[in-house]
Amino acid sequence: MLITTTSAVDGRPVQEYLGVINAQSIIGANIFKDIFAGLRDVFGGRSKTYERVLEEAKEDALRELSQKAQAMGANGILGVDLDFETIGSGGSMLMVIATGTAVRL
Amino acid sequence: MKSYFASYLISHGADPAESTILIFDKNLSIGYRNDAGVNEMESWLIKDVDAVFDLPTQQTKITNRKKSGSVIFIPGKEALVYINELQAEQQKAWHKRKGGKEWVRNFLLLIGILGLLFLLYLLIVPWLSEKMASKVSVKTEQQLGDAVYSSMNLDQQEDAAATAVLNEFFRTMKVPTAYDIRITVVNDNVVNAFALPGGRIVVYTALLKQIKTYPELAALLSHEFTHINNKHSTKSIFRRLGSKVFISLLFGRFGSVSSVLINHADDLRSLTYSRRLEKEADTEGLAILTQRKINPDGFVSLFTHLKEAAPADMLPEFLGSHPDIDKRIAYIKEASREAAVEEDAQLKAIFEKLK
Asked: Which of B21, B43, B334, B343 is the most exposed place for a label (fewest CB within 10 A)?
């Protein structure tokens, strides 16, 4: 599965466009990570805990996207776009939306 | 997750189909088009899979023990290495798996930090708040108390005659203090009395009517006086403020459910503190009485009046701001066992004016 943010792949023309697919992953950081991040906010510095949560959400969204593409018989996803959003009361949860076009190369 | 282009042989001797392979932690999924041109998906568990490197074709050959005849060919050696890693990972005990040790370490770290924060909350914040409270000047306390007093609009219901008698009574007790103690008697049917920071004591007539002897009045006044003299209200305010600030720093962006929980836990804790202050006021009030040889039984009968006035279904002690009345009576009796008692004619005479 070729996942790319570009709209074309060099040397491999698109044979078939299978449609737009998207996948989202919503992750709550959990109370303890919130506490750590809260401390980070007080004392300053990088919040590795939140960074990891972000990374995890992104991985999940991309994994789901490839599964969807695979189910459609695609072997590539072009023009992938990742959107990050906070949701939930107080913005304590994180949503990652991955969008792309499933294609056969 | 990793993905590969591969050719997939569904059964022995079948034509290889072009497919995409997604390898996850526990399984791999195969997407391909069958002979009829329809998309098909298959999922194999990583633990059922055998991967070997086929040297002549330079491809990784993956077979499934549960599905003989099916073969996946992935160009290159990378898929083999990845599958071997995943299989080795699955063999390990949970705490040795990737992230497992880190998980244990994080957990210990979390416990440590939570413990530290809890200690901070239980010891350092109250200590700091009390330090700050003791720095508040008498004048500031007076202003605070007066502001509260005037906002309560008690002046209209004041019983001026009784007020004068009580002030005279307290002056005659000659309790040394930096505060200007001003007692006000207020017409109301609540059996209660309270102290405001800075020197104001308010006594309701309903309670005053129940007081039959001068030691009871002395007990009441010395109890409320201790609240003022030991800055109990100011300390409580600072403690509440301190722990509220600390909690909102920690849990500021919490959802409403947890903030309700945390606030209530904090309220219960401040009640414990309030009970401690009440006990302090009782014992130091008792000391004022014994120093002046006033009968300490005044406390006991005062508490009895309070108990009679209290509704039958009293809150359990841990929910109350004051200690349980029976306990209060018990520790007063215990502490005053050897107190010398002498009749104070002057105080008695002043008390008689109330009648």
From this structure: B334
